[in-house]
Amino acid sequence: MGINHRTRGEVEAAIRQAVIKFEQDFMGRGPTDVRAFIVRDTILVRLKGVLTQAERQLAKNADGIEMVKRMRQNLIAQGRDNLCGDISNITGVKVTGLFTDIDTQIGERIIVFTLDQDLESAFQ
Hints:
Number of strands: 4
Order of helices and strands: HEEHHEE
Oligomer: single chain
Largest sheet: 4 strands, antiparallel
Number of domains: 1
Helix content: 40-55%
Shape: elongated
């Protein structure tokens, strides 16, 4: 189902759930908090509490931080098609890009999806 007859809040909630499920499937646990925001032709997702206990231990030095970031990048690369497909199914628009980074000091990750059209205008 496209976004017809759904509010912006309902679509953002569905995006949050898809990202939580992705994190649980690929990392074995979900984040403590996820927020999704539709901004024109972009979706911004902020995840808090994403690091596992092992990752928090690794992130105590520079080599470990790089290792955690590299592992997370590899995991999202493996699941990218599925995640982008889920977001396209939820929104009814094509995902053209996925960008992500993680801050190991605060245990937060940002995921940005770019879309092939302005999704925000569908809710106005």
